[in-house]
Amino acid sequence: MTGPAVEIERVRKVYTRDSQQIVVLDGIDLVVPEGEFLALMGPSGSGKTTLLNLIAGIDRPSSGRVRVAGTDVTALSESALAKWRSRNVGFIFQFYNLIPVLTAVENVELPLLLTSLSRRQRRERALLALKVVGLADRAKHYPRQLSGGQEQRVAIARAVVTDPSVLVADEPTGDLDARSAEDILALIDTLNTDFKKTIVMVTHDPRAASRAHVERHLDKGVLAREVSRR
Amino acid sequence: MKYLPYILKHLRRNWIRTSSTVLGMAVCIFLFCTLQTVLAAIDYSLQSASAQRLWTRHSVSLVFTLPLSYKARIAAVPGVQRVANSTWFGGIYKDRRNFFANFAIDPEDFLAIYPEIEVPADQRAAFLTDRRGALVGKGLAAKFGWKVGDTIQLESDIPPYRIGRPFDFVIRGIYDIDRAKNAGGDINSLYFHYNYLYEATDQRVQAGTYVLEIDDPDRAGAVGRAVDALFENSDAQTKTETEGAFVAGFVSLAGNLALLLNTIGLAVSFTILLVTANTMSMAVRERRTEIAVLKTLGFPGRLVLGLVLAEALTLGVLGGGLGLLLGWVSLKGLQEAPMLGTVLAFYPNVGLTPLVAVLALGLALVLALAAGFVPAVAAYRGRVTEMLRQV
To answer: pTM of the entire structure?
Structure first.
């Protein structure tokens, strides 16, 4: 891949509720270079998650262009977009969103079902991903048997198992205690530094944001100042 | 196939709900199998009816008998070629559980009217000449291990036919019916001479029914009306109808049995459809976030739709399979049940036929698909961002 990992041009997102138009994002321009760790901050309702969803390809802008991992995702059909997501983006949710009836390793294996890998290869890769997040010994555990921090680790393993170039995280520490949050942030940091993943993270937590190389603030749908920590 | 474990795990998630849905589906399929089998059996028995035969009975009920003098008068009606007395004897062989149909007939006329009853010439002659002779169906003979020359006793429960001792019969012939040519042909009955009954009861009994052979099936209505008109002003008025109508009336008794059974089946199926649809909707509603996660991970909408439908189909297969098993076991059990089993023996094809089994499984799958369709489409159409928001 050449060029920036994420390139957003004049993106607007407008919702229509009861004939009223709500502008969530208003002409956003954003470039995230490859290997960057960006923290998106801002008050509730500022449009952070919407922007993250656009980058992850699970939502579409009302206008403008979103280019991620070299692909203009706004030009893709629904099925092409789904295929693209499965290969290029890993999503980390605030509430982990693991499938409760599946074990940790089965949860991690889930995105690999979309590939042509054999059952054995899928299992090997899933176990490897769990090893990366330090949970190889919990492979057979169900989400209910794991702590919040461990669940989030499994969710991270699931996000990286297909080796996407971009990871998006929506308040990944929002549901965790301070210590677990630290561990998760350290893990995300490792994914960025050691595995060269481009990371876009939405957070309210300044401590979490301090891990990022760059901090961008959103307010009322407009990107404000950039804070660089490098 | 790689998604099957995922589907099965979801079904195990709420096993009480899954089990009750499967059971509900199974009951529906079980009912379908049983009702359709009964209907098929009745339909099969109707196939043996000939358009060239009419039946004359008492206009009030089969319970009432007709004077013997009617035979000659009926035979004189234009269009009637032959008439035979056929009277239900209701004889019991040793035990009530051994119930089978047995009729007192006018042998020569009856066998002439029913050419499909095939008896070896020597046995036929022996039967016709022996007043105590009995002609038994191949199926009945096989059931009791009877052979030509055996002596058996039957005792009827019907008061006029009770003479203080059983009736003795000598099996003079074993008849068969080629079911390839005469579908529904009965090979489980016993026929004997009406004269034997008449004399043994001191000539006090009358005829249960008369079976008529007519020369032109197209004139069946006119001939029947002519027969009934003969006895319009008598004490014993008659009702003459085609053999098909007679058999149908006999098996229906309570009206349109087929319509009734089909309506019951339809009502049950519709109820199960609603129950299963509700279950599937609940299952999908509960998993909105999971569906959103699947889509976020890159599962295309069509695959998600397929997974929900596959889940519904799995319920259908499980319910249908269980229902088929229940149906098979119960139909088998019914055939071996006392009394009822013997009654069912009238219908040679009672039992779960491959056609009914395939139809039942098809119904289960259609019900499951119909129930899963709306939730599956909802999952297919659901927008990830909206589904993730509704936690």
So the answer is: 0.71
